[in-house]
């Protein structure tokens, strides 16, 4: 029996299926998805092209540096051959730093001596005890001066770790410099100028050796040690006893040898280290910048660690990994910008005058825009004030030449009973030529005022203006007083002249362990 439905039956072949219309909002989602997908593909393609182009430009500059025969990779800065310990000045200086023997009170006295040489007279017996207790250190310092090479043994293969390794080394050398300064001043006041000159030559050799380490902080430390040397020359030269003048007034073995003074003049004027040290520091700094960029781009150093938000040992976060990948081309192009500027500074460091340096270097904008800070994230932080380092180098060159000139004047005075009428009178017996002023252009020489109230030799200083020996804190001439006078004498009624302004400035700044602070402030403040 069949059941019939009241509903009519249609022909199944003729019934059309019902199609629901797609809501408009889904059409928009599909379109947005397609657009987003295309945008992501485009951005990824651009990122690949950007990375290729940034790497190509950076590598082209690296190839140019290598073709010029200049170092750029950390391994390029290692010693070329092994140096025997007895011919390695650095090894002997490190041993000397270890051999220093100071009590707490003696350490305090050594620190106070930096501010006033009058401490030598006030604590004559205590100072003599310091010298006697450190005979071994002084002997090692004397041997270091005669060494032929210098290798501090600080690996440059890990440049970022080099600063942590070199800082304790530099601290020890600063202490040795103060010890030599103290010893030289004490022996001069004791009438033993032969030993005083020996220690001064040791101090100059130490400052040159420290500068050879290569880093900017080592250069600044070396300049600070050299500042102590120039300070001591300024104080001792007016009364420096030579054998020719004191045969009747003091034992000849306590007077300084003329040959020692002449050797010191030659070191001050012709030492190759003084001419190369600034360029070496610029080359090392360029390598350091490039290596750090490579470490970040390769993910070996995270952005968090670089910004100081985490330790270098911490694993990279998702944010670090993403940011490293996206920003790598930006960082590489910023590295290229730093390399170009660093290369200009290596060229500028070899210029004979500050005027030529300024003509070589590009002018820096006083204030950078926010966009510039985004485009140059590394150079904004890492490249603040290397021009100041170059300036300190030229000020140190000026002081070296002033000290050499003052020693030549002292030799002339001993022979003729008075200072020369003009610096030309020193040539060629006392000086091979009148030293050029590194702050003057057109090969101009140092100035001389023999009949001033306080006779001076001087350089015109960084502003390029001859202010007739005027001394200013931040500008003015670089002055060397031939009678040891300083303005503070009248103000404080001190028994002996205080340290020179220029020497004190560098010594103050190299005591700061912060590398950037040394670059920005060195040569700016008095102690």
Task: Give descriptors for this structure.
mainly alpha; three-stranded antiparallel sheet; 20 helices; 527 residues; 3 strands; single chain; disordered C terminus
Uncertain spans: 246-251, 489-527
Which structural category do the helix and sheet elements fall into?
A: mainly alpha
Q: Approximately what portion of the residues adopt beta-strand conformation?
A: under 5%
User: What general form does the structure show?
Assistant: elongated
> How do the strands line up in the largest sheet?
1-2-3
Tally of helical segments: 20
Percentage of residues assigned to helices: 55-70%
> Averaged pLDDT, please?
80
* Major sheet size, sense and barrel closure: 3 strands, antiparallel
Number of beta-strand segments = 3
- Helix and strand succession? HHHHHHHHHHHHHHHHHEEEHHH
In angstroms, what is the radius of gyration? 33 Å
C-alpha termini separation: 121 Å
């Amino acid at each position: 029996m069949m059941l019939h439905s009241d509903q009519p039956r249609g022909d199944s072949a003729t019934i059309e299926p019902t199609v629901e219309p797609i809501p408009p909002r889904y059409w928009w989602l599909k379109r947005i998805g397609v657009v987003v997908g295309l945008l992501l593909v485009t951005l990824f393609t651009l990122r690949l092209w950007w990375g290729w182009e940034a790497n190509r430009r950076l590598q082209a500059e690296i190839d140019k540096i290598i073709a010029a025969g200049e170092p750029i990779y950390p391994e390029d800065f290692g010693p070329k051959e092994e140096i025997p310990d007895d011919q390695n000045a650095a090894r002997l200086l490190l041993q000397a730093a270890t051999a220093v023997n100071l009590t707490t009170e003696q350490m305090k006295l050594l620190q106070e001596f930096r501010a006033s040489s009058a401490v030598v007279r006030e604590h004559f017996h205590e100072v003599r005890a310091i010298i006697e207790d450190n005979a071994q250190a002084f002997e090692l310092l004397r041997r270091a001066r005669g060494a032929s090479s210098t290798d501090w043994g600080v690996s440059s293969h890990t440049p970022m770790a080099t600063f942590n390794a070199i800082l304790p080394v530099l601290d020890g050398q600063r202490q040795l410099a103060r010890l030599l300064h103290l010893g030289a001043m004490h022996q001069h006041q004791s009438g033993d100028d032969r030993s005083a000159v020996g220690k001064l030559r040791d101090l100059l050799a130490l400052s040159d050796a420290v500068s050879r380490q290569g880093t900017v902080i080592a250069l600044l430390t070396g300049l600070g040690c050299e500042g102590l040397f120039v300070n001591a020359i300024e104080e001792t030269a007016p009364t420096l006893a030579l054998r020719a003048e004191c045969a009747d007034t003091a034992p000849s073995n306590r007077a300084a040898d003329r040959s020692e003074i002449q050797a010191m003049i030659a070191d001050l004027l012709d030492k190759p280290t003084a001419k190369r040290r600034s360029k070496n520091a610029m080359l090392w700094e360029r390598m350091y910048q490039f290596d750090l960029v490579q470490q970040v781009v390769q993910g070996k150093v995270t952005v968090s660690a670089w910004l100081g938000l985490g330790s270098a040992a911490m694993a990279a976060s998702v944010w670090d990994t993403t940011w490293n990948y996206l920003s790598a081309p930006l960082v590489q192009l910023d590295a290229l910008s730093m390399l170009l500027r660093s290369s200009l500074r290596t060229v500028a460091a070899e210029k004979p005058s500050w005027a030529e340096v300024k003509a070589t270097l590009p002018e820096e904008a006083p204030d950078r825009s926010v966009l510039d800070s985004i485009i140059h994230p590394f150079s904004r932080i890492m490249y603040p004030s290397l021009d100041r380092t170059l300036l300190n180098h030229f000020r140190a060159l000026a002081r070296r030449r002033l000290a050499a000139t003052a020693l030549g004047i002292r030799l002339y005075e001993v022979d003729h009973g008075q200072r020369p009428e003009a610096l030309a009178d020193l040539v060629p017996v006392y000086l091979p030529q009148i030293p050029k002023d590194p702050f003057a252009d057109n090969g101009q020489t140092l100035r001389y005022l023999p009949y001033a109230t306080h006779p001076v030799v001087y350089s015109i200083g960084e502003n390029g203006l001859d202010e007739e020996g005027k001394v200013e804190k931040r500008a003015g001439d670089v002055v060397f007083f031939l009678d040891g006078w300083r303005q503070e004498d009248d103000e404080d009624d001190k028994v002996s002249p205080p340290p020179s302004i220029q020497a004190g400035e560098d010594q103050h700044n190299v005591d700061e362990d912060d590398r950037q602070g040394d670059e920005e402030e060195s040569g700016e403040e008095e102690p």
